[in-house]
Amino acid sequence: MSFRRLLAPLLAVIALSAPTALASTVVSQTVAPGGVAGKTSVISIDSGGLTRSYRLFVPNVLPAGPRPLVVALHGHSVTGEAMESATGLDKSAAKAGVLVAYPDGYHASWNAGTCCYDAKAANVDDIGFLSSLITDAASRYSVDKLRVAVAGFSNGGMMAYAFGCARTDLVDVIVVMSGAYMGTSCTLSRPLSVLHMHGLLDTTEPYLGGTVTPLKIKVRPTLGPIGAIGVQAGCTSLPTVPFPSSPLVTETQAAGCRPGTQLIVLASSTLGHLWPTGTTSVPQYGFDATTMTWGFLVNTWATRGTPVAL
Q1: Can you name the CATH fold of 21-195+278-301?
Q2: In this predicted structure, what is the pLDDT of residue 12?
């Protein structure tokens, strides 16, 4: 028997176990908005029988080796492009050499479990889409598997919770602004770090739980899912601690968690349903969501080990 015949079964197994190449195309590339030192590409990708798209910000100066990736999810009725412009995440990403992806929801919505809009009605697999996005980004640039985060606003915050609960093999830190956990269970394969920011004047997704307007569906109180996630991370309590930057904000921070895990909730007494950022956000609301996002990610990622390519 020839050597090639002996190898044939092994080669067949390798072929079957190899990851399937994703069908994706760079549609366009432009200078990043706001004069930030980087470029943003629009990428089309096939996922779940649909053609989806995402924007990928890449700093002009990208250090060698695997780099962190943030996936930023817009709220309902807007786009990834709007999320990129409104949050200003690119500015700090350019300085730190971080990739930022801004995907577009299905008809401007995300299927986060029991919500929302067209994505939920069509039962769109947004967990699969975001998984494919991360894989696709890693095929274009070296992504650090220990430093992948998902951040989201409103319906995008719901989706950040959904993805964090479903795919802690891909992401172990999420940031939620004015969102809610809309799943039925959250069983983690590894601890999940969470920064949740919310306004006590939010009537769209109430901090203390209630009805999401105008959908007439119920959301849980914010601290409920945080507590459930904390139990799985070994956390022992959810005490309120002083927030040093402003008396407008109440901070709840889980204690006794496993090393490398943080669970923080910031509640602003003057904030409604928005992503606050810019020069007036701290005096008006007590914090800047973009600044808090980067601070949380940097602190969490500092506890990770040597970068490893995804």
Answers
A1: Rossmann fold (3.40.50)
A2: 42
